[in-house]
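Predict the 3D structure for this chain.
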Amino acid sequence: MFQNLDFLAYCDTQIEKPEIKQKVQKLIEEEKRKSIKTINEYLKEITSQDQFNQEVDDFLLKELERIQKEKENRLDFEKKYQDAVELDLDSVGNDVEKMKEKISLMKQSLENQKIKIVNTELLSEYGENLHLQFNSNLNSTKQFYANQLQKNQEEIQELNNKRMYLQLLEFKNIEKMEKQWNDLVSKNFKTRKACEKMNQEFEALNEVKKAKK
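Done. Predicted structure below.
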């Protein structure tokens, strides 16, 4: 029923009547009260940049520092595994807890070596530049959607321009018809007044004729 209905959004005038403004403001306040939180309460939940920097863990800070100084990437856990392998079992002695810790680190080191072997096999099978191909595909996909977004934005802008043109055109027609309506109302009012005056004059003439008889 309303699929072809389009309000004259580009032609709407500002509300001037105080009573209407008051009703609109009342509706706004009622809608705001429906919200669980205020805008400021939502903003407080967003972590500030300074707070974020303070909450960054030591590992990430060290890694950022390493990147800035362009040092070779040697992660702490690799050094930990290497220290575990180089640690002499005789130095542990009869300490059971240290022995368990030593064995746990050696198992972790072994698992780390397995992961390195898997990575090496993957590099051997797919090549070292496979990630570049994936990145290229991602860039192509990104560019495709960027072009699609731009196309959609242009279509939306074209539609809005068309709507504005049609609305302004219809607004002129409405103004023209409104003027014609006002003119007709004015003419009808004048015609009615003239008819009333003629009736009064006619009745006055009839009274004069009756008086002469």
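The chain is about 80% helix and 0% strand.
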